[in-house]
Write a structure and sequence with these properties.
heterodimer; A: about 500 residues; mainly alpha; two-stranded antiparallel ribbon; about 75% helix; B: about 350 residues; alpha/beta; D-Maltodextrin-Binding Protein, domain 2; 2 domains; ten-stranded mixed β-sheet
């Protein structure tokens, strides 16, 4: 293996490859920042360019674009509440409130550090344990994925801090319902398509994500303007704030970054999950681990709520290279495109890749270290300039966001119907937001719902309709136990606290 | 939806391919077509039979239709048979959107070829979209991809008969994975093979995944025993060294995979080819259709086509105009019968 690492290192430090890491990260960050245009669009754009290059160089470039885009996606999530790509939707939950509080600089810096941590940690894992992990990822069956999605749903608690438990639950259910639109794979039957061929393929996650965040946000800004004084509005967000992160803050978020990186990597390795799921899961986990007081901060600008998804989505993007390179299985649309590119080079990813093309295999992994360093160097000094976006007068910024959000969504599917759906969602979202319904649980339900149902249906079919897989498969059972613990723990905690305080009262009484 | 709504799609997506980009066709094929590649007009147009062809692709980038259209375009352009080729992706409605678009704008689409495959028959039978191949002008089927049954390297199955035996014992023993919904080709093919044995195809357990890669992961994780997919994809998967192809549905062994037996050899007469081919707009004159069919037929003789074909593991199957229509009618009947037996059609 050491041989391999050295081969990889010697390939990766070739000037052309270093240059490509730089180009990839730069282009990726830039495209990722545009709302709606995510890693898939970014990589697709680079493919024609990579064909003139060596296989290693080409793949290094594409990998750079990939994590660059996820890195860049967080910027627009934080600054304008318009997720750059679906995996950075969660970043907006706490990142945008921070920006609104005048801490945009700090949020961007923290996001950069967290992404760096996530990327680096998973690159280490990838280097050390890629082949071993590949076999682990293969042991995951449909029932295990189902359990994982249920665990993910417990994250709904994270969005129901301010006495909105019922509203958050309602929105989750609504999200689950929307996820059933389209052709049901297990029976081939169309559901809730109303005979419309455009609804047949279901609704892409990007549509509700962009509609409820980017579009609803700008429209709300315009609507509010009628009531509020203009200056107030402008002063609110145009303030960049300090980029400095204090020692206490580092101490607070360091364990979060580590935990979330590990979680993100593991989720990334599974071919059935992905960066978006990883971000949601990490956010939920962090909220579940937080103390009662800290929990209230989630959704209003919690540092931990910002760091968790950022570390997780970057770790997950590196993790997804495990099934791609060692098994030849693409876990996501993005890695599917990269698989196509590798095959066109005459390189067959799979267990033999390490033997047949060791230079490509190892240099891609080694280049990930460089990539993460480049991203950090590239992003930190640029933050003040990027945040200048906020200085743009709203009269310019609002139409710009609208333009990018709508074209971004259109460029993914080339179907105008998607724009209508987005507008429809936007109108519904504005209504719901005015009634104080939280939007995040809707997205959580939507993103987990489809996967949860598909996997449950498969698990049931495999076990002939029996629910026995819930306790017969150790992985499923393990995850379900954790889920139940996560659900019960706060109730028990609450109960104990109440009793303790009652006892104290009683004790106080008896002393008198 | 008004037809004008679709017009921006054209200007956005049309590629003018240059020789250089054509050399890198797979590159373009995988590209979503977001950004137009500026074209340099080919100087060598002396032997061009057709000035230009515009390919309409009813699905997104990277899919089978996309690869077929862009591969064909590459070969036509590189061999000089056609001067200019351009491509347009229009996804939605399982391909129905592009068909509707071609019909609505038929008058302006005389130079357009729509790429399609067996699903146009299956989906129109199922009523996914109201149109059928009869609403278009069939130009030619050009390639075929046989179906393949894939198993894990360490699978106990080495012969189709073992699967049949297990199925006879208890249909629940045999779980077939596929990367598309129930009722799609991946499902219909193993069902047809079971029916061929005189068994009940409805009892077959088909486990649907949302992509070929995930179905492959399902096979490797052990939750399914057999993976049903196209030969092209199966060959790619087997190269990674973890799975082997048990059988294919070709009438005889194919040259790209001489070691893979056919179901026929194993005593099951299921022969099935997922054809891919091209359609013109409704009302396309028969001379024009013949002209396109001829240029596609001449393409087989070129080196450029051979490069594309072997890279993708396609099999040449040429059925021009009237022959194509007759074939489609026959397939519609065949597939319709099977789908009725499976309960997908009443």
């Amino acid at each position: 293996m050491l041989d391999g690492i050295l081969t990889g290192l010697s390939t990766a430090i070739m000037p052309i490859n270093l240059f490509m890491v730089f180009v990839g990260c730069f282009v990726g960050t830039f495209i990722g920042m545009l709302p709606g245009l995510g890693p898939i669009s970014a990589i697709a754009l680079m493919i024609p360019i990579t064909y003139g290059l060596d296989p290693s160089t080409g793949i290094i470039l594409m990998a750079g674009v990939y994590y660059g885009a996820i890195f860049g996606g967080s910027t627009s999530s934080i600054l304008i509440n318009a997720p750059g790509c679906s995996s950075t939707v969660v970043t907006a939950f706490d990142g945008y409130p921070m920006a609104q509080k005048g801490q945009a600089g700090k949020a961007l810096a923290l996001a950069a550090y967290a992404s760096f941590t996530g990327g680096t940690i998973s690159a280490v894992f990838l280097l050390v344990a890629a082949p071993a992990l590949a076999s682990v990822s293969l042991s995951f069956q449909s029932s295990d994925y189902f359990a994982l999605m249920i665990l993910g749903l417990t994250a709904v608690a994270a969005f129901s801090g301010k006495g909105q438990v019922l509203k958050a639950m309602l929105m989750t259910v609504l999200g689950l319902m929307i996820s059933t639109v389209g052709t049901d794979r297990s029976s081939g039957v169309e559901r809730f398509t109303f005979g419309n061929i455009d609804l047949m393929d279901g609704i892409s996650f990007l549509l509700p994500a962009m509609a409820t965040f980017a579009l609803a946000e700008v429209v709300m800004a315009v609507l509010k303007r009628d009531h509020m004084k203009e200056e107030e509005n402008e002063a609110d967000t145009s303030h960049l704030g300090s980029m400095k992160v204090t020692k206490e803050e580092v101490k607070e978020v360091a364990p979060t970054a580590l935990r979330s990186s590990v979680l993100g990597f593991i989720v990334g390795v599974l071919p059935g999950a992905g960066a978006t799921i990883a971000a949601f899961l990490a956010y939920g986990m962090e909220r579940n681990l937080a103390s009662v007081k800290e929990k209230l901060k989630f959704g209003t600008g919690s540092l931990r709520g910002l760091v968790a998804p950022e570390a997780a989505n970057n770790a997950s993007s590196s993790g997804s290279f495990v099934p791609l390179l060692t098994l030849g299985i693409p876990g996501s649309g993005t890695t599917a495109i990269m698989l196509g590119a590798l095959i066109a080079y005459g390189i067959q990813p799979g267990p033999r890749m390490m033997v047949d093309n060791p230079d490509v295999f190892w240099s891609v992994i080694v280049s990930m270290y460089f990539g993460n360093i480049v991203l950090l160097i590239l992003n930190l000094p640029l933050i003040p300039y990027i945040s200048k976006l906020l200085m743009i007068p709203r009269t310019v910024l609002v139409p710009m966001i609208l333009f990018f959000a709508i074209t971004g969504v259109y460029l993914v599917s080339f179907n105008t119907f998607d724009i209508y759906i987005m507008v429809f969602f936007c109108i519904a979202a504005i209504g719901l937001r005015m009634l104080n319904f939280p939007m995040a649980p809707l997205l959580l339900g939507f993103v987990l719902g489809g996967l949860m149902e598909d996997n449950l249906r498969r698990a049931l079919m495999i076990s002939d309709g029996s629910l026995s897989f819930l306790w017969e498969r150790p992985i499923t059972f393990g995850i379900m136990v954790v889920t139940i613990f996560v659900l019960i723990a706060p109730i028990v905690q609450n109960f104990l606290q109440k009793r303790r305080s009652e006892e104290q009262v009683l004790a106080g009484n008896s002393q008198n | 939806m008004k037809r004008t709504d679709n017009n921006p799609a054209i200007s956005n997506q049309v590629f003018s391919t240059t020789r250089r980009t054509l050399l890198k066709m797979t590159a373009v094929a995988a590209c979503t077509g977001l950004f137009a590649v500026p074209g340099i007009a080919s100087a060598d147009s002396s032997k061009a039979q057709v000035d230009s062809i515009h390919f309409l692709i009813p699905g997104g980038a990277g899919g089978g239709w996309d690869g077929t259209a862009r591969g064909t375009g590459e070969a036509l352009k590189k061999s000089g048979l056609v001067d200019t080729v351009s491509f347009q992706n229009l996804s939605g409605g399982g391909g129905g959107k592009a068909i509707a678009y071609l019909i609505e704008t038929a008058k302006q689409q005389q130079g357009t070829l729509l790429v399609n495959s067996t699903p146009i028959v299956v989906r129109s039978l199922m009523g996914v979209f109201p149109q059928s191949f009869r609403d278009l002008t069939p130009v030619a089927a050009t390639i075929a991809d046989y179906a393949a049954l894939v198993v894990r390297n360490d699978s106990k199955y080495t012969h189709w008969d073992q699967i049949v035996a297990d199925f006879k014992e208890n249909p629940r023993n045999v779980k077939v994975a596929g990367g598309s919904s129930r009722g799609s080709l991946d499902h219909l093919v193993p069902a047809a093979a079971i029916k061929e044995e005189g068994l009940d195809p409805r009892a077959l357990r088909y486990i649907a995944y949302d992509a070929g890669g995930k179905a492959m992961a399902g096979l490797l994780s052990g939750e399914a025993d057999i993976l049903s997919t196209g030969l092209g994809e199966a060959l790619e998967m087997s190269k990674a060294g973890q799975v082997r192809i048990l059988a294919i549905t070709a009438p005889e062994r194919v040259s790209d995979a001489p070691n893979v037996p056919t179901l026929k050899e194993m005593g099951n007469n299921t022969v099935f080819a997922n054809w891919r081919g091209f359609f013109g707009a409704p009302g396309l004159s028969s001379e024009k259709a013949e002209e396109y069919a001829k240029v596609l037929g001449d393409m087989y003789q070129t080196d450029a086509w051979e490069t594309v074909r072997s890279r993708n593991g396609w099999v040449n199957v040429y059925k021009p105009t009237t022959e194509f229509t007759a074939f489609l009618e026959k397939q519609e009947e065949q597939v319709g019968t099977l789908m009725r037996e499976l309960g997908f059609l009443k």
